[in-house]
TrEMBL record:
Its cofactor is Zn(2+). This is Adenosine deaminase. It catalyses: 2'-deoxyadenosine + H2O + H(+) = 2'-deoxyinosine + NH4(+); adenosine + H2O + H(+) = inosine + NH4(+). It comes from Streptomyces cyaneogriseus subsp. noncyanogenus. GO terms for cellular component: cytosol. It is an enzyme of class 3 (hydrolase).
Amino acid sequence: MTAPRIDTDTLRRLPKAVLHDHLDGGLRPATVVELAREVGHTLPATDPDALAAWYFDAANSGDLVRYIATFEHTLAVMQTREGLLRTAEEYVLDLAADGVVYAEVRYAPELMVDKGLTLDEVVETVQEGLAAGMAKAAAAGTPVRVGTLLCGMRMFDRTREIADLVVAYRDAGVVGFDIAGAEDGFPPADHLAAFELLRCESVPFTIHAGEAHGLPSIHQALQVCGAQRIGHGVRITDDIPDLAAGKLGRLASWVRDRRIALEMCPTSNLQTGAAVSIAEHPITALKDLGFRVTLNTDNRLVSGTTMTREMSLLVEEAGWTAEDLRTVTVNAVKSAFIPFDERTALIEDVVLPGYADVL
């Protein structure tokens, strides 16, 4: 018997958890236009709808480096206290409107200091904006909890400095660390000093790996650097020669057996050439093989997406059911960088009751 189709309104109401979403990739087009005008930055389009379309078209290049280049215009409007406060607050409100109950937002403070802000000022301002958004969302009856991941840029040399920043703000809303940027040619092991510090300080971290580069990147992230999660991780399928048969190589077995979460982003992976279609995206096969896959947006503006849209695409094109969506949501909360008791409460009190009516 075929499972009934889940309509978009129902999907939007379902509780969601997102672990992989970039602050500078999720701005509202109208906000980019307004802030760009205030700071004198020239955009490729000044109409919000046209700008959104430009982002989506520019990102559909099939190339990670070109995809990353689209961030020039969002970062240009995130160099002031006013810009950071507004974009952080709106970020939270947009998640709440999409049914997200838990999120980890990531950004690179070193990319937001061009107008004179210090790294500490960037972090404190973003946290202030996120707190304002969470307060407004709670007052509106759509509470969402947002933790922060600070990113070091893997092609630069400030990752240890950013790791120090994570330790300094670990009790002020920052829950972990990541390295971001062009993956190919910039291996995780280049940043061992940062990862060693974080391990010594008992701070969790994830690493972008297995998107533009294959198994060596994932292996380094896990076995050399000690990551607790993998950002994207699509190329773990290179260690599963026959997905249908489910015969795993040693690295794939390690990832599955130790419940290492894969922060998968279907639409983004199509845009960067890491996957060929939603129907054939590895997230479905990996879910069926028992990997701890999670569903994420990566960059909502750049990819023209939301968590509701990502869910809808998997339902429509990959045959996902409400039970599948609940599974990846629970997976995400289980792998969140917050204390165990808080994760358990979120699953039992929010996620499972939220799915009760559709299962």
